[in-house]
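Session log. Operator J.P. requested a structure for one protein chain; no other inputs attached. Running the standard single-chain path with C-alpha cell output.
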Amino acid sequence: MENINNQKTTTAALVVLVTIGWIFAFISLLGYSFIFGVIGVIMGILTTKNGSRAGLSVIVANIILMGIGLVFSEKIADYVINFMNLT
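Structure written below.
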C-alpha cells in the first residue's frame, strides 16, 4: 500500500516538473531567454533523473526555444503586445 502512495506522489511531482519546464520554455520566447531557458532545462534534467522520458523533450524544447528567444525576443514580445492590444 505504501508503494502505491509513493508512486502516485512521484508521478504527480513529475507532472509538475514537466509542466513548469514547458511554461519556462514558452516564457523564454518573450524575454530573459537565458534565465528562463536554463531553469526549464534544469526542470527537464530533474524529470529525467527521476526516471521519466518526458524530461528529454522538455530539455530539447527549452534549448530550441531559448535560442529562438535570444534572437527574436523583441519581435515576439512586440507581436504579443500588439496582438493583446496592451499598448
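Operator note: The mean pLDDT is 85.
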